[in-house]
Give the backbone structure.
Amino acid sequence: ALGLAFLLIEFDEFRALIGDEAGPGRSGFLSAYFTLVGTHGLHVAIGLLWMAVVTCRSLVSPADPHLAANVERLAMFWHLVGLVWVAIYSIVYLPALVP
């Protein structure tokens, strides 16, 4: 649910920036911003899709011997995406808060 909320917030933020004519073609910062945050959003979407597939597979065949390994890989992927977000947040958003 939080991953989906993140994507919705990012889509709204991108829409507002582009509506204010602050798209990726306006500056190097905005180009990097859209690339970094957009790529992260893509990975969040991939993780959410992967979660849906693993959930469906676990409901269809809960005795699948490969299910535990798939869940473990998904968990590692999701934690990596979270760690990358901490780095992106620290680079993009925190400097804007410092006067």
